Amino acid sequence: MKLEALALVVAALVAGGGAHAEIASQKNLNLAAAKNAIAAAVAYGRTHDAPGAAIAVVDAGGNLLALERLDGTFTAGANISIGKARTAALFKQRTRVFEELINKGRTAMTALNDFTPLIGGIPIVIDGQVAGAIGVSGAASAQQDEELALAGAAALSGQAQPLLSNAPIHEFDAKAVTAAFAKGSPLLENEVYKVHASRRTEAGQVEVHDDETDVIYVVEGSATLITGGTPVDGKITAPGQFRAARLDGGETHEINRGDVFVIPAGVPHWFKEVRGPLLYFTVKPVAPAGAVQ
Most CB atoms within 10 A, among 101, 176, 268, 290? Predict the structure, then answer.
C-alpha cells in the first residue's frame, strides 16, 4: 500500500514537472524599468529641442506601467501615447509600420479595436523578447515622437536590438533581371519599398510622388534629368501620384552610366531628354514627403 502511494506521488511530481516545462517564460517590464525608460526619453527630448511630449510605458501585455506628460503637451497626448505603446507591445512592431500601411491603402486596419497606428510606438526588446513598449506623442513631429521612444527603449535594452523577422528573401537571377529591363517592369513591390528595372527610350512626364523616394542607379545610357521647379499642366493620376507635361525652372543634371541619384518624396523630376535606351534600377522606399532630408 505504501509502495502504491509512493508511486502515485512520484507520478504526480513527474506530471507536474512536465506541465511546468511546457510553460514558456516571458520577459516583462516592471515599474522601475518603465520609469527609467521615461527618464531616458525626457533626457533625449531636452537635448534635441522637443517642446513637450507625453510618454507612456506598458508591459508585454499592453498594461500601463507609467505615464508622464511634460508641460506644454496637448492634453490628448496622454491617451495617444498609451495607445501607441499598447499597439507596439501587442503587435510586437513599431507603430510606424501600421501608419505607412494605412497610408498605402490598407484602411481596413483602422477597424481594429484598441489600435493606434501612429508613428511613435516602439517595442522594448530584452534578451530577444518583447518585454513591453514605449509610446510618445506631442513632440515637434511624428519623427521626433519616434526618436524619443527609441531613446527610451534603448535605455532598457542596453543597445538597439532588432525584432528578428522571417520575411522571405527575394532573389532575381541575371535572366530575370534582363527580361525585366527589356520591358521596363517591376521586380518587386510591397507596402514598404519597390524595386523596378526601369527602361526609357524617350522623354517622359514630370513625376511627383507623395510618399516614394526614388533611388536611381543608371545601368546603361544617358539622359538629361530636371529636378525641382514648378510642374505645368499637371494632374493627379493615382493616389499619391502626380504627373505634368513639363517643369518651369528646376535644376538640370546630366546622368550617365554608373551615376546614382536620390530624389526624395515630393520633389518634382523629369527625364527631359533620353539618349539611347536608358536602363536604371529604381528602389523606392516608402515614406511621406518631408520625412527624409
Answer: 268
Distance CA 148, CA 24 (A): 32
Q: CATH code at 143?
A: 3.30.450.150
Examine the domain organization and report whether 153 and 178 are in the same domain. Answer: no
Please tell me the pTM assigned to this model.
0.53
The pLDDT tens digits of the residues spanning 91-146 come to 999 999 899 888 888 888 888 888 999 999 999 988 888 999 999 999 888 889 99
pLDDT tens by residue, 246-288 = 999 999 999 999 999 999 999 999 999 999 899 999 999 876 5
43-56: burial string, b at 16+ Cβ within 10 Å, e else: ebbeeeebebbbbb
